[in-house]
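Worked Example 4.2. Read the sequence first, then its structure tokens.
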Amino acid sequence: MNPALLASVLSLLATVAAQPYDHYDMGWVNGYRQGFNFQCPHGELLVAIRSYFSEKEGSDRLWSFECQPVPENLGEPSDCWWDDINRAGLEWTSTCTRNGLVAGIQSKYFESTLDREWQFYCCYYKRRCPYSCMKTTDVPEYYREEGEMVIPAYGYFIRGAQTTFSGVLRDRQWKYILCRLTDFDCEFENL
């Protein structure tokens, strides 16, 4: 191989490798240590969640979300609301009440715990009931890593989450609760 060409390629690779990976251009809905309120457009539900951790920025995460229109057979949501607040520094499990599905998330950062409180924005579709529910694996897989969850199959929806909080590492892992919805009306609430 031509030594001049090799030197040029190595110089280019060194320049590219030296460029910092900028996590500030990923469409994040918050800055570090800042609260946020994200809601999908009317008739859409959350289908993807991404986060990036920084210890140096208060052991906090940047967050981004993606939405997708619901299938036509579900129709329009008959009601939407902010569900219960899940406190900072605690482990918790939360599913939307009244068979709701997650259409938004809001969060507030607390310096005293280096953690956030969370609240789901839930929407109810007629009297449809969740079934075939499952939990994802831990997102992120290990504390302090970048996290990403995308609905694995069409027809599944986020119903809630279970989280663990490490007081030592000051980070949270999530298991998202995903469900399908019946094609028929049902009279009961699936918990």
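Now turn to a second chain, presented in exactly the same format:
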Amino acid sequence: MDSMEPEQTPFAAVSAQTSKVSRQYQAWLDKSTPYTPYRWLGTAGLLMVFFIRIFVAQGWYIVAYSLGIYLLNLFLAFLQPKFDPSNEAVDNEMEDGAAGGLPTKQDEEFRPFIRRLPEFKFWYSATRAITIGFFCTWFSIFDVPVFWPVLVVYWLILFALTSESLPL
């Protein structure tokens, strides 16, 4: 007698292949985790290829500007603490009138510096953004005509304003 196994639908086949590729990709990312300098050197090389592409093509300045703003945002999130002690001190002062500071009681716990954006996520997001930006430079729809010095000045102003707000 024939066995009553249901045939695999095309959707299930595609889903199985997608999950297989996803698992292989995640395994590759997991294996690359301890190699921090090499990951960042690869990202820096990719960024240099992107800059060379922009320089040679003499266009896509809006893509480069958008990438610069995104990388600046990632960098600032990387530098900031996940839990800002100054905000907690202000909150505590408002609640009970006492000044915040180091732990004074036995049950209070010191929390070490934890980044708002961990290094691996910073690297992964930056590399993905640079790759997307590089592919965008191959399509003329993203080549919006702009006067690039205005974008550079605007980016520097944004950098200066956001750097002043860093809790250093």
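Notes for the reader: Helices lie at 10-32, 36-57, 61-79, 85-96, 119-136, 148-164. The CA atoms of residues 52 and 58 lie 10 Å apart.
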